[in-house]
Amino acid sequence: MNEMTAGEIAKITGGRLLCGDPDTVICGLCIDSRVAKEGDLFVPIVGAKVDGHRFIESVLEKAAATLTSIHRDVVVSEKPYIFVEDTVRAMQDIGAYARNSFTGPIVGVTGSVGKTTTREMIATALSGCAKTYRTKKNLNSQIGVPITLFEMDADAECAVVEMGMSEVGEMERLSEMVRPDICVITMIGVAHIENLGSKEAIRREKLAITSHMNPDGVLFLNGDDALLKEMKGRTLCNTLYYGTAPWCEYRAENIRMTDDYMYAYDYVHKDERIPVLLNTLGAHNVTNSLAGMAVADYLGHDLHKTAKTFESFQGLRQKVIRVPGKYTIIDDTYNASPDSMIASINVLADIKTEGRKIAVLGDMFELGPDSEKYHYQVGEYLATKDIDELVVVGELSGKIRQAVEDAGASIKCYSFKDNGEVVLYLMSVMNPEDIALIKASNGMHLDEIVRNMLG
Question: Is residue 24 domain-shared with residue 113, that is, in the same domain?
């Protein structure tokens, strides 16, 4: 973690210290007044509904100092007020400055689907041979990345930074702050297509992760993704591919499911062949872990130690919850896009059970004018899988049901108006051998279903 003084921050941001001791030490950045700690610099964000400036006085009861874009004159306060024109931009300047003190390799990770899991997979892989810092929680945005950079452990030997975007120009600014040595792009999907217009535009924005990459760095692309495969030979930087295709420099071969629903494969690079066992569900996680193996290999780590780390990997998003004597739930309620929906459907379909497989799916957001089409396509895919029941909740997810019924699949379909009705239905029909996948965009709050079924 970095430490700076209020005077240094005023200089870094091109701001002006309005009051307080310039030698006040800052050891954290805070954007939420409710969780401010001693030593924090409060950064008031001007949002669409709430202006963080209104909380400055109360937050300074704990925080050490504050930025401000509304106080231009001397302020009567013992604690430092630092005037800046734009608090978010100032916060980004602080993050970029903090990055200068980190001397180890930084891996930047982005993608429409799987970037958080891949971030964790890469960090897990690197931790086998080096102390590794990684983005915490979902601090991957224009305001999250500066916090990540400020909080990086000074004694870490490498870092993995997740970089997310939803608008044109955001990735270039993130790259300017992070200045990654290694970049990884997981997949080009339709998340945020409402703002960016097309998958090609999303790809262009994701590739901007390399705009401030170390000139001697490397870009890793997922060779199993069609739009990233198209970039072979077209990028302006050193580019390597990981995936299952024979032409990928870093490959997964002999992929198989174990008796307890986990996956195993052989990692292959040149003459090296290393067995890998994943402590996680889903064939898609083979590719996610492969990114970790490839980055560790590129950095010269012991690959046997690297592979061993995945045997105790703890996933962040998808959780299997077994309720003895009642049922099993696959909780995947954090978020959803068409690609992640398909990946989760595959997980449910691949699991072996004597009971029923029930897909509980809700609406996916931020898909633009073709949203109904994307929901229908998910239904078309689901109709080809070995799944017994489909339960949909929400308006758009009705298109998923419609596609399944149009396909004439033997999947029983049910629609419900709200999460409470879904809970009542599932708890009344599920048996101990049954498995239910629960997934939708976060705004559908399907986590309520999980909590009520466990309560």
Answer: no
CATH, residue 328: 3.90.190.20
Name the burial class of residue 415, with classes exposed (0-12), middle (13-18) and buried (19+) by CB atoms within 10 angstroms of its CB.
middle
My answer on whether 43 and 82 are in the same domain is yes
Containing domain of residue 422, as a range? 319-454
State the pTM of this model.
Answer: 0.85
Structure token pair of residue 236:
């302006």
Please answer whether residues 297 and 269 qualify as being in contact, where contact means their C-beta atoms are separated by less than 8 angstroms.
yes
112, exposed or middle or buried, with CB in 10 Å at 0-12, 13-18, 19+?
buried
The answer to whether 331 touches 448, Cβ cutoff 8 Å, is no
pLDDT digit string, tens, across residues 59-71: 999 999 999 999 9
Q: How far apart are CA 446 and CA 442, in angstroms?
A: 7
Look at the block and give the residue holding tokens 């002999």.
Answer: 254
Distance CA(437)–CA(350), nearest Å, equals: 12
- Residue 401: the pLDDT is 97
| Backbone Cα Rg of the chain | 24
Q: Would you tell me how many other CB atoms lie within 10 Å of the CB of residue 122?
A: 28
Task: For 403-424, write each residue's pLDDT tens digit.
Answer: 999 999 999 999 999 999 999 9
Report the number of distinct structural domains present in the chain.
3
And the tokens for 41? 């610099």
Structure tokens at 219: 């870009």
Query: What sign does the CA torsion over 344, 349, 353, 356 have?
Result: positive
At residue 316, the pLDDT reads 66
